[in-house]
Amino acid sequence: MLNGALVLVVATMLVKVIGAIYKIPLTALIGEVGRGYFSSAYEIYTPIYAISMAGLPVAVSKMVSESVTLGNYNDARQIFKVAKKLFLIVGVVGTLLLVLIAFPYVKLGDCEDNLWSILMIAPSIFFCCFMSTYRGYYEGLRNMTPTAVSQVIEALGKLILGLLFSKVIIGIGMNMYSAGQPVFGVVCNNDSEAASAIAPYAAAGAVFAVTLGTVAALLFMIIHKKIKGDNFDRTMLVNSPRPRDKKETSKTMITIAVPMVISALITNVTNLIDNFTIRTRLAHAVSENLDFFKETFAASLIGSGTLDKDIGTYLYGCYFSALDFKNLITSITMSLGVSAIPALAAAVAIKNCKEITSTINSVIRICMIVAAPAGLGIAALATPIMTLLYGGTNAENLIPISSPIVMIYGIATFVLALSTPLTNVLQAMGRADIPAKTVAIGAVIKVICNFIFVGIPELNIYGATIGTILCYLFIIIANLYFTMKVSGCRINFLSTIVKPMICATVCALSAYGTRMLLVRFLTFGDPSSRLNGANLSTFVAVAVAVVVYAVGMLLIKGFAYDDIVMLPKGKKIAKALEKFHLLG
Fold first, then answer.
1. Which of 49, 199, 216, 444 is at 20 to 30 A from 225, Cα to Cα?
2. Among residues 438, 459, 491, which one ends one of the domains?
3. Contact 27, 35 (CB under 8 A)
């Protein structure tokens, strides 16, 4: 499980680096308003995508893992064939549904400029669904490499084509403006109006690259399957029992998937309502308190040339820039949940209680080992990190608004990061109904809190963080309780949660203190450039924090033998650490 998780973690980190390389220049290229359009397309796309993808990939992974564990290799191949047909249907329905919903959605939300971005991303649902057949199959075989490689290919396609399309569209729009022509049908009297008219089309170009990235990743998976296969030899297949009837396989797959679909439906419809509520409540707060917002965010609004009518969209775009950091660590810990499903399903299939307990404790411990220091570290260095990444790209406008959000979500990262892996644990144990119920209650908490707090002018966009944290806090506590109840295992809270949190706190304090000290002495370089003393101080502070955390975890025996073994040269390192009694 841990080796598979490591492969996915490395791929996820590469994808996030590529994403940062993409989003930072993209934000500079299309501006916060354009980023708002880009993000708004995801508001309607994400719930339909998640509902389309929910259940079936996990069901395929779980069923394949169980079949292989019991020696039913023919059944595993049968599951793949049935899944392809089901995913084909789901992908077509999901794409058509998004196209049909797009028109009333933009009308209802008074955001018709979002239409092009939504239509450009709609086909990716079909390609992602079909690709997930292959990903789920290989994950069930505990081979995470094809999934990892396809994720990187998808990200690279988005990076290269997204920036290219956006730049070309902006160039076309500015040429129209320079020639005195209407910019995409809009008469513009100044640069700000021209930028506002170009933004939705530039965002649509960036979004279309997402679709093309999924096409490239799907082609890789198809080619890989044809060349590499699944490593089942003739002897294994001959000695394997006949596969179940296709109808029975379909019925089992759908039965496993339905509770997950319900959970995804609740989550994503709530997110859709939630995002819609944030935008409408923010727009209401701005319209009722325009002078307050213009005064509070004067430097950012003037510096970015944001029009009064775009203030709400601008703040929303800044909020989504901060969400890149909120989702950074959670996307890494999600990999652990994906890798845990086949391992835990196999243990459940042969009723290996010791393996079940070990796997669940490993999932929680590794999540905390990664999420706690990373989250608190990001919180401690929120402004310096954003300055490092966004420096020279209107940083003085974006950072004052986004960095407090980054800090708040950084502190709560360990709560957010545990959510999906614990859900996967319950799904692998055949209790996907429990996350559906806990998510439903958490969703109600989230919507109510956002409706209340975002509408308060003094909190505005920052009020959105309150509902998110309270929602996930409830889900984590409830899922932890039911995980222990269903599995009958005891979670070692000292080794899985307390020790990582203690060391993570020391890690964050060391990062903050180191940077505060160094920035006084390293004063070289232009502040508007990334090559200056302040940014070097940030790099050094991060390096010091990593060392402090690693040493601290070793001193209090926070690492287990299995945690070290999964690393490159892990066995040698683990044996050396055991000699000095540094492993728990």
1. 49
2. 491
3. yes
